[in-house]
Write a structure and sequence with these properties.
The chain contains 13 helices and no strands. It is mainly alpha-helical and about 240 residues long. It has two domains: about 130 residues, RNA polymerase sigma factor, region 2, helix turn helix motif (Rna Polymerase Sigma Factor, Chain: A); about 70 residues, Orthogonal Bundle (Arc Repressor Mutant, subunit A).
């Protein structure tokens, strides 16, 4: 399975998701890269908001593309492809989060004396940023990232999708399988926790937060195609 060139990719960007999906289904498998590069950043941001772990979020993004590929014939177009794909990624991220919580609960039972330290670590904001983030995100963008990650679990994905990715309330509700009213309530409460003045200070630089471009984006495309070749040797 070959990837497509930069110039060719640029000429195909005007195609709708459905047009790309139809061509991929028809056998033009290299075009799957268009969909990956189109939604890499969104999937990474949403899954990172859920998991608060960049490496695991990247794994989830890759798994989501592989699962979407395996079930592409089941995509009926009742909802936009982007929502269908995001829902796959969200389900996987939530599944991993549940496994992590169960593992943590087991560890707490086995190591009761460590409970206090575990609780302390949970309540201490994570301030370290990886080199890619430090190089590409401005100071205010970093503040926004940390403010989102410090939110309780039920608010992080909603804030990420509505205020960072700028999805509509309906799109966010569909991707997270919530009611629109629930999305509105979580958005309101999440914004209040982050404080309006923080958003006012960050402003337009918020769009530069949680980057998923360059080497990380290329890596996801390469890994997904490698996994798809294993699943479908004839590609």
């Amino acid at each position: 399975m070959e990837t497509i060139g930069t110039l060719e990719r640029a000429s195909l960007e005007s195609w709708t998701d459905q047009e790309v999906v139809d061509r991929v289904r028809a056998g033009e498998t290299a075009l799957y890269e268009i969909l990956m590069r189109r939604y890499n950043q969104r999937l990474y941001r949403v899954t990172y908001a859920i998991l608060r772990d960049s490496s695991e979020a990247e794994d989830v993004v890759q798994d989501a593309y592989v699962r979407a590929w395996q079930h592409l014939d089941q995509f009926a177009g009742y909802a936009p492809f982007s929502i269908w794909l995001t829902r796959i990624a969200v389900h996987e991220a939530l599944r991993r989060l549940q496994l992590r919580k169960r593992s943590q609960q087991f560890d707490d039972i086995q190591h009761g004396e460590e409970d206090f330290m575990a609780d302390a670590e949970t309540n201490v904001p994570e301030t370290s940023l990886d080199p890619e983030q430090r190089a590409s995100v401005a100071e205010l963008g970093q503040l926004l990232e940390q403010a989102v990650l410090d939110l309780p679990e039920q608010y992080r994905a909603v804030i990420m999708m509505r205020d960072v990715e700028e999805l509509t309330t309906a799109e966010t509700a569909a991707a997270l399988e919530l009611t629109e009213q629930n999305v509105k309530v979580r958005l309101h409460r999440g914004r209040a926790m982050m404080r309006d003045r923080l958003f006012a200070r960050v402003g337009a630089s918020g769009k530069n937060a949680f980057p998923f471009m360059g080497a990380r984006c290329d890596r996801v495309v390469q890994v997904v195609f490698s996994r798809l070749r294993e699943l479908t040797p004839e590609l």
